[in-house]
Amino acid sequence: MKELIDNIQAIQVESPVDKIIRQLKQLIVSGQLKPGDRLPAERALSEKFGVGRSYVREAILKLEFYGLLKTNPQSGTYVSGLGIKVIDSLITDIIKFNKDDFSAMVEARYYLELDSVRLAAERKSSEDIEAIEQAMNDYEAKVNNGESAVEEDMLFHVMIARATKNSVIESMILNLIPDLIKHITENKICGDNRGKAAIEEHRAIFEALKAGDIDAAENAMAGHLDEILQISRADFAAKLLINNS
To answer: I need a labelling partner for 92 at 20 to 30 A (CA). Which of 27, 45, 133, 146 fits?
Structure first.
């Protein structure tokens, strides 16, 4: 009976982003969207899919990161020229990556954000500092009011990535952050009081960035992400133990 129970897997519920990705894939594979075709505007897609624009934007960013879509600020978002078999394989990998590799995503995010905050401390502009501070204050206001601050938390980290002036790092952060923060927050992986604890951690990161102190910024970010890193590593070690037993 124990062996039977161990072989039963939890039902995976697709997120709105995954559903959008699958539908866009089907439109491409069926030929309704061809290489070079322009996608409808985000607002139109949001209305058609029946979800918020943030979900549409996240799906597009992921597909763009993997080279399946290309965005031109002046003219919109277009389907890339990749073959259907490549698109099929990549989209499957994108969705699987989001679901099954939590520990790997946490570890990748940890080291990527350390590099990100170091570069941001070195390259940030006054406008970047204002944007990071605004995101930090918005996060604090929502947490102190007992509201969900998932989007504000995401924005804080994205604004730091933007301050690096490195578009690849920004794209990678955009790809990793949304799923991770939602998963961590919605499943309360770090406990019920994690939101309030993050307030002081955000402030330490911000003050180091503002001062241009590269080492202090890295240490503050490492401290901010250490708890979830340790949790993910313990989870990974437990899975290895089960697989090797």
So the answer is: 45
